[in-house]
Amino acid sequence: MNSGDPVPEAWRSQVSEVMIGSADIATRLNDLAADISADYMALNPVLVVVLKGSFIFASDLSRALTIPHEVEFMRAKSYQGVSTTGVVQIEGIDLTKLIDRHVIIIEDIIDTGLTLNRIYAKVQSAGVASVKTCVLLEKMGQQRRRDVPFFDYVAFHVPEKFVVGYGLDMDQTLRHLPFIGVYKN
Ligand code: IMP
Fold first, then answer.
1. 99: CA distance to ligand 1 center in Å?
2. How far apart are alpha carbons 138 and 159 in whole angstroms?
3. 58 sits in which H/E element
4. pLDDT confidence band for 115 (50 / 70 / 90)
5. Are 43 and 101 in contact (CB under 8 A)?
6. Residues 136, 142, 143, 147: what is their CA dihedral angle, to the nearest 10 degrees?
7. Which candidate, 64, 151, 146, 59, places its Cα nearest to that of 105?
8. Among 27, 64, 145, 182, which one has the highest count of C-beta atoms within 10 angstroms of its own C-beta?
9. Ligand 1 site-directed mutation target among 20, 52, 108, most atoms within 8 Å of CB
């Protein structure tokens, strides 16, 4: 499926538009994986995958990498429905596993940047050799906080619309769509 294709009948009541089709996601991920593979040659990085939204992105990216690497998971929760609560909870990771390691944080989407900012600070203070961030989507809007870290790898820049699919949810639904779509609200 390509970007702009009609929304499949089954999802038409909840999704208004195919923003990024599965074919475009796959092409971009291969390029991103080639960049990361070149940058981390011989460094055996650890992908720290931020659940739940990054699970599909991370599994495709991990399989496209051509270098040895490890995968760890953490959980961050900041949203209820379509608006932020402003609170970020982080749990589920043993940070001692990251000591002296080259870490790449894998996040699904940057809106205000608050979630990644909190995660970045926590990982950085864990005695890592280095830390970079890799995000599937960066929303281009006015909501960005000024104190967010630089995002090292970004698959796509998107307009400020609420999106679902390819791991991203609306109250835990629609994560499984094979494309990134605009949520109808
Ligand atoms: P931030 O802290 O404002 O950058 O928000 C980041 C988190 O909010 C992401 O990890 C997602 O869980 C969630 N989020 C932000 N925008 C969207 C969206 O358009 N669709 C689904 N989840 C979103």
1. 28
2. 8
3. helix 55-64
4. confident
5. no
6. 90
7. 151
8. 182
9. 108
> How far, in Å, is the centroid of ligand 1 from the Cα of 161?
11
Q: Is the sign of the CA dihedral 74, 137, 65, 100 positive or negative? A: negative
Report the alpha-carbon distance of residue 107 to residue 57 in Å, rounded. Answer: 9
Q: Which residues contact ligand 1 via a Cβ below 6 A?
A: 53, 78-79, 84, 107-115, 162-163, 168
Residue count of the chain: 185
CB 112 within 8 A of CB 144: yes
Give the model confidence (pLDDT) of 35-49 as tens digits.
999 999 999 999 999
Structure confidence by residue, pLDDT tens digits, 19-29: 999 999 999 99
- Which of 5, 39, 111, 169 is catalytic? The answer is 111
**DSSP character at residue 5:** P
**Nearest C-alpha to atom 15 of ligand 1 is from which residue?**
111
CA distance 134 to 151: 7
How many angstroms from the chain centroid is the CA of residue 102?
A: 18
Among 51, 77, 78, the mutation site with the greatest number of ligand 1 atoms within 8 A of its Cβ is: 78
